[in-house]
């Protein structure tokens, strides 16, 4: 058994942080800075460190772009809904997720981004349609963002390739 690389250790931390953030967000509808900020720092160190050790500057560039895309999108969503569409903790978490998932490539990042909406949106829409969830009810979005990120990390590139192949966009 070899020594784990920096990205493996980063993912191990992110797995633990994902569980803790999910449970806290479900319970309190907040994503506390005491976990979100260190998670951002550790992921930055992991992604930059992995880039330095492997000289993968292109991956670092893609990851940085996706951090900006995730962050800008969720900030805009928060801003234009007056904070009613999601909490600011989700906005602070988004660039972290974009950075990590983007490190795996644009396909992974795009799938991670879309997955969060599909995984959260479909069941929540059904609950609204059947009257079990009222409009304006506060929903913890963090767990959906985190699950979407994991979908992107684990299967994003394969799903993106399959989508491109099926739709003939390649």
Describe the 3D structure.
The protein is an all-alpha fold. The protein has one domain. It contains six helices and no strands. It is globular, with a radius of gyration of 16 Å. The mean pLDDT is 93.
Summarize the structure.
This protein has helices at 6-28, 33-54, 57-80, 88-103, 106-129, 142-167. By secondary structure, it is an all-alpha fold. It has one domain (6-167).
Q: Approximately how much beta-strand content do the residues carry? A: under 5%
Order of helices and strands: HHHHHH
Question: What's the main sheet like?
Answer: none
Shape: globular
Q: Kindly provide the radius of gyration, computed on alpha-carbon positions and rounded to a whole number of angstroms.
A: 16 Å
Regarding quaternary structure, what we see is single chain
Structural class: mainly alpha
Q: Can you count the beta strands?
A: 0
Mean pLDDT over the full residue set: 93
Which stretches are low in confidence, meaning pLDDT under 50 for 5 or more residues running? none
Bin the helical content: over 70%
Question: What's the total helix number?
Answer: 6
Quickly count the domains: 1
Kindly report how far apart the N and C termini lie.
39 Å
